[in-house]
TrEMBL record:
Gene Ontology process terms (BP): mRNA export from nucleus
Region named Disordered: 234-304
Start-end of Basic and acidic residues biased regions: 241-252
A cellular component term, taken from the record's GO annotations: THO complex part of transcription export complex
Superkingdom of origin organism: Eukaryota
Source organism: Cryptococcus depauperatus CBS 7841
Record protein name field: Uncharacterized protein
Entry keyword set: Repeat, WD repeat
Family according to the record: Belongs to the THOC3 family.
Biased composition (Acidic residues): 258-278
Length: 478
């Protein structure tokens, strides 16, 4: 990696950073799966197996911790709590999501000042793998897989009867199949610092950005005609009905009989039946005879001289054929097909894609944004960590200190460091400016979660190991 002297800590009049040994936080009885700091740094929340959610204060003493929900209250979750997120604007709002594998997931919104029960509960058909808050704190997103594709649900805080209420947004959606890209699998999703875009990385090695509309426009059921069957299809359906009833095909949907025209329609039906019977009994006229009778009479005389005789013959034939047609029953007019009017629910609008870039040849698993808005970092299946600028998405630095997939990345509050973990049995803390590896923390198992304190360089983390009592850790800069 290139070295730039102006980026060194000494050139910026900063001491070389050093981190203390990890501090073990004990007291839990269930294995910890995720951890996160509140926006003011006064609380830290952990999510564990079998519905466990615990909120810790600054002392990090279990005797002062609070369980959600409080004692003697059943939890809204039914299995392991694998995703949690704090509001970036309100330090009392916490969102948790579990993984129930068979019946989907439960997303719960908590106000930790009243821990008896959540203030909102939502159900999703898939297991939530990622939660992300909008910078305003009034919106958040939940990502869950559904049959080979990932779907994103958005939630917002809106006024209902004069009271702030959390609702699931039904006016927008993200995920599913697109003609240009196909089915996307979104492994990590984040809002940019301005909140105007929502970004995600996927298994095809791409990073995508969509325009996020903050304004919530709820959908309502409306009464409108069913456009699934157009006029041409209605005409075809009407003609098929007539064919099944033994009648002729109509000329169009506009030929509809009314009670005032019933007698006229019956007369036309009689004439039609006569002509059809005549064709069946007497047979078709040959082209030679037809041309001969049209141009000249039987004796080679003009048509004017034979007009009276032709009329008499036609009148005699029609009287004879009318007697044959009396055996056939008269047919009433087929009523027109009714245009069905039903309640149609408007569909949610898919977010507008702002940018789509292929930046990796392998799957991307992690995405994080610099709190100052200068960089974003991605980690993937190929164990390569890459730093990009947020303006042009151009690569600035890359690290290859890992041997296995990178699944978790996090920027420190001042943007100086990146904590990185994955399937390797260590956590690396890297310097954004110098590119140096500041420290490595050995682990007995792969990392489950990483979270920096919002006001100081203190890292909270947990791993997948289940050796002895449940433990999570705090790492502080000296």
């Amino acid at each position: 990696m290139d070295s730039f002297p102006s980026s060194e800590f000494a050139a910026r009049q900063l001491p070389r950073p050093a981190f203390s040994r990890p501090r073990e936080i004990r007291g839990l009885v269930k294995h910890v799966r995720t951890v996160a700091w509140s926006c003011d740094g006064r609380h830290c929340a952990t999510g564990g197996e079998y519905k466990e959610v615990v909120v810790w204060d600054q002392s990090l003493d279990y005797r002062a911790a609070t369980s959600l929900p409080s004692a003697n209250t059943s939890s809204p979750h039914s299995h392991h709590v694998g995703a949690i997120a704090w509001s970036p604007s309100d330090p009392t709002i916490l969102v948790t999501a579990d993984k129930t594998f068979a019946t989907g997931s439960v997303v719960a919104v908590w106000d930790i000042t009243s821990a008896s029960s959540p203030i909102a509960i939502f159900k999703t058909p898939g297991d939530v793998i990622n939660l992300a808050f909008h910078p305003s704190g009034r919106h958040f997103a939940a990502v869950y897989p559904m049959k080979g594709r990932d779907v994103v649900d958005f939630f917002c805080l809106t006024q209902v009867l004069g009271k702030d209420t959390w609702l699931k947004r039904d006016d927008i959606t993200l995920g599913g199949f697109t003609p240009e890209i196909g089915s996307e699998e979104l492994n990590s999703l984040r809002f940019i610092n301005s909140g105007e875009l929502v970004c995600a990385v996927s298994n095809d090695g791409t990073i995508n950005a969509w325009i996020y509309p903050v304004e919530y426009t709820p959908l309502e059921d409306g009464v409108q005609p069913d456009d699934s069957i157009d006029t041409a299809e209605q005409c075809e359906a009407e003609e098929d009905n007539r064919d099944r009833e033994g009648g002729e095909k109509g000329d169009g949907c506009s030929d509809v009989s009314t009670p005032d025209d019933s007698e006229e329609y019956k007369e036309e039906a009689v004439e039609g039946d006569v002509e059809m019977t005549e064709g069946d009994v007497k047979g078709q006229t040959t082209p030679e005879n037809s041309n001969h009778e049209t141009m000249d009479g039987p004796e080679g005389m003009p048509i004017e001289s034979n007009a009276n005789s032709v009329a008499e013959i036609a009148e005699t034939d029609s009287r004879d054929d009318a007697q044959l047609s009396t055996a056939q029953p008269l047919r009433e007019a087929t009523p027109p097909a009714d245009v069905t009017v039903e309640h149609v629910k408007r569909r949610a609008k898919s977010l507008t894609r702002y940018r789509h870039a292929s930046i990796y040849s392998a799957s991307l698993l992690s995405l994080s944004f610099d709190p100052r808005g200068r960089f974003l970092v991605t980690g993937g299946q190929d164990a390569l960590l890459t730093l990009y600028d947020t303006k042009g998405w151009m690569a600035v630095k890359s690290w290859d200190v890992f041997m296995a997939a990178i699944r978790h990345t996090a920027f420190s509050y001042d943007g100086e460091y990146i904590a990185v973990g994955g399937d390797d049995l260590f956590i690396a803390i890297l310097s954004v400016y110098t590119g140096q590896v500041i420290t490595k923390i050995s682990l007995p198992a792969a990392v489950n979660a990483l979270s920096w304190h919002p006001k100081k360089n203190t890292l909270a983390y947990c791993h997948q190991g289940k050796i002895g009592v449940p433990i999570w850790y705090i790492l502080q800069q000296e």
